[in-house]
Amino acid sequence: MDTNDPGTKPDPNAQPVVLAVLVLYQVEGSRSQTVASFCDAMAECDLATRFALLLYDNSPSRTALPDRIPIPYRYIHDPANGGLAAAYNAALRLAEEGGNEWLLLLDQDTTITRTYVRAVLTALDDVRYNVACAALAPTLLDGHKVVSPMRILWGGRIRPLHAKVKGIVPAEAMALNSATVLRVSAIRQLGGFDTRFWLDYLDYWLFNRLYRAGYSLYVLDVTLHHGLSVRSMGDMSIVRYKNVLSAEGEFYRTCKSRVDNVVYTLRLVLRAGRMLVTPKGARFFLLTLSHLLTHLGDSRPFIRRL
Predict the structure, then answer these.
(1) What predicted TM-score, i.e. pTM, was given to this entire model?
(2) Three-class SS state of 167
């Protein structure tokens, strides 16, 4: 892991409150829409003094960075590609060392706006002394479809939160990683980010653990555009689907109740059935069936429902 680029040094008179971690993978940093939009949002001095940035690059080769990044930053190159969990855990350690109270997660598929940044700072003031609030998230749109945040329903199903729900969510909910702001002390209480979910289902795991620990999600009154890395089964490679199945099964077995797992099993059966009649899905049928049998044979105990 290459950490020899410290970036610009922070102003000792302006301690950043938020450390943003932006994870790159085979995308040149100087051409990344997320990097460009985040730097543009930081162009206003009153915003820039509240943030620092970690650029965590999982690509095989080092990337070129923008000529100017207007906030203190650090670049880490990790060609071993430890995924999101490795990047977020590195950021968590840096946030603790630097005294940052909050951690902002970013990936290369979200466009950041100044409206969003100002909404974050306003909300952080609102929840500063509400230690039960551990996460803040905007509404994310992929095209015209709401993909985050989601409410958690019976059996582990998810549905978009109602558009009128803003502020503290009074029920179990989850958000996608990108553009979510997390309280550093709460994540440390969880033991950091679980490396079993190095790429997929890390957000599901995170919000499940936060909810079970008594923490809540705050929905920001702002919307961002986010391009999902995988929109449908037809877009997914065999390798990625294997990882999704592995992470999905581990999440249900270790984080969900017996009832949720029964529903999950039934959903796997239906998923496999749909694959048989879908041209692009047929290639995943045997993988799904094998995963179903493995999941049924797992003898680990389930957790209790809250």
Answers:
(1) 0.92
(2) strand
